[in-house]
Amino acid sequence: MNQRMLSVLLAWLFLFSGCGDVSPTDGSSGETLEYDLVKVDSIGVELGDSNYVFGAVIDAVVLTDGRIALLDIIRQKVSVFSHEGEFIGCAGSGGSGPGQFTSPYSIAPLSGGGFAVADVQLCKVVFFDSSLVFSRELSGFTPAGPLRIQGGPEGSIIGSRMNYYFDEEEETIYSGVEYCRWRGSVEPDLLYLESYALHTSDDRVFYTFASAGDGSFFCAPISETEYVITGFDPAGDTLFTTELPWSMTPKTQEELDVARPGMVIPGPGSESTSSELSAGWKADSLRNATYLFGVDSLGRLWAKSGRGAGSTPFFDLFDCEDGSLLMSIETSLPVSASVWAFRVTESGILGWDHNPSDYPRVYLLELVER
Fold it and tell me: How far apart are CA 137 and CA 116, in angstroms?
């Protein structure tokens, strides 16, 4: 991986690991129902049972059978718990061999209770079955492997990866991001979307995305200037494009007070630490319009929205078939939750802080009537 590509990759990892820095403003559109997203339990302790003490939770997901899988990038393993928070077991370990990780960055649920883990440094995806046993891996991705992954149909994964190509006519290198589906090969089965720019440019557009189990794909540009969501069907054809009114919106002072950098992942061979790489970090003063987090059991696409009036997380829920706005939810979560990452699947909702001020833990969340 050349130096320019590495710098772009690190910048992108920093952007996504700090995604909790996105927050709320004015949920006047759509049918605003009296619902709230509340904490019902948590997994993780500061001291005590080592199975509940984490190094850094980089990703987490509720699996298709209801169990909860937490991906620890420091301890280089996946810890699996029952939906009641009881420890079940671990999968993976540090290293470069089969079933091992160097920088595990994202986890995706698979049908039948298994899961896949993307390793950003080893450029591979490792698959485990429902018994937490290593089953196979896709390795040899070039120039980079998938970064963020989610589950797709028939054991496939859907995710994003950095790539580049040389334009022979222009004699110019272009680099960017591709959003693809993979199953049995490092070559994608389907390309949903790509975003390229001159290799020396910083003008490329990055997207947040979510997928459904049937292979439907949804994306939204990470933007302070527009609120747009596009949906694709399992064949990769456009289903809808939804745009909500949006104007540049400053963060509240409360949001700025709790903002902090996410975890930055050092590149291959780097001796830098996450804190050193984020030493020059400054909180963005403007809110991002939207950030997608997943599809629930009722076929609703969840987006953390910048439209809320307060400083706590605000969500818009969309119909996955036509992109219509179904409801908006102003939560009573604490202001500190504005820096959380969230993950929504058909089996449940999780929230956590990549870089907590106290100790790593993951919250089990539930949508309830007020």
Answer: 9
